[in-house]
Automatic annotation (TrEMBL):
This is Mov34/MPN/PAD-1 family protein. Residues 1-126 form the MPN domain. PROSITE patterns: MPN. It holds the Pfam family Prok-JAB. Coiled coil: none annotated. PANTHER family: CYSO-CYSTEINE PEPTIDASE.
Length: 126
């Protein structure tokens, strides 16, 4: 991933605290970009739910030749950059990347058939 993506994710998390930020990762790795979305969860301090209108728009744009929906991101304002119990329960196995921001770091996870698996990350200036 690029250092600019990681810094943008940290910035969005800090800006949204104490609520969880969330959004989409668009484009191809390692040059994906973050698109912030509204967190429409009933409990935005404890959970995230990406605005379904933004998610549907991203899928439509991808089908029309726009940027690929590479994955999703969200923050844990009071926790580590690791999937919570809820995150693991909501994982769909779609193969996309989840970026989680917490405790000052950003970690990337693959949503695979076996659940969320930590990815090794190489940071480039990109």
């Amino acid at each position: 991933m690029t250092s600019s993506l990681i810094e943008e994710l940290r910035r969005l998390a800090a800006q949204s605290a104490p609520e969880e930020c969330c959004g989409l990762l668009l484009g191809d790795e390692p040059l994906a970009v973050a698109q912030s979305c509204a967190n429409v969860s009933d409990e935005p301090r404890r959970r995230f739910e990406i605005d379904p209108v933004a998610l549907i728009a991203a899928h439509k744009a991808e089908r029309a030749g726009g940027p690929r929906l590479a994955g999703y991101f969200h923050s844990h304002p009071e926790g580590p950059a690791e999937p919570s119990f809820t995150d693991r329960a909501l994982a769909s196995g779609d193969g996309r990347v989840w970026a989680i921001v917490g405790a000052g770091e950003v970690r990337f996870w693959r949503d695979g058939a076996g659940g969320l698996e930590l990815l090794s990350t190489v940071v480039t200036d990109g």
